[in-house]
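User: Fold this; tokens only.

Assistant: Input:
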Amino acid sequence: VAGRPRTILHGVCFMAMCCSALTRQLLADDLARLKSMRGRFSAYVLPGQTLSLVGYTPLARGEQPFAVFNGSGQAVMKNGLFIFR
């Protein structure tokens, strides 16, 4: 727990959940079209916490910028970028 209120969600699990949501929405679940994904973890996530993934206007074809916010409106992932074919 190390100073956290309770167990936190592992970053890899959190990133996988984001990838799943973006793949479902943008690629009709065709994971083969995913090229890469990145983002900066900016706060911890607690299991069961409500999250909102927000997509922003793409600057290039095949790229979807995004961020993720918790129920309090705090960014838990910033500078996300989902790159696909």
